[in-house]
Amino acid sequence: MPRVQMDLTEKSFERLKDLKNKAEAGSYSEVMKDALRLYEFILSKDLEGSKFFIEEVGKPPTEIKVFV
Known about the structure:
Number of domains: 1
Order of helices and strands: HHEE
Low-confidence stretches: none
Strand order of the largest sheet: 1-2
Radius of gyration: 15 Å
Mean pLDDT: 96
Shape: extended
Number of strands: 2
Distance between the termini: 34 Å
């Protein structure tokens, strides 16, 4: 299996640790794999011309720009 080594700033590593805890992931690799799958999906939909919306509780949907 190929391995990738990454250099992260302290802030980026803290974000990764926070995501691992919030997702109750077993490893940092699991977080990265999930992030890549999500990024791939969103990017493919963006390239197809899809629009993205977020709907907060009690508020109407709002379009968000993911890739500017």
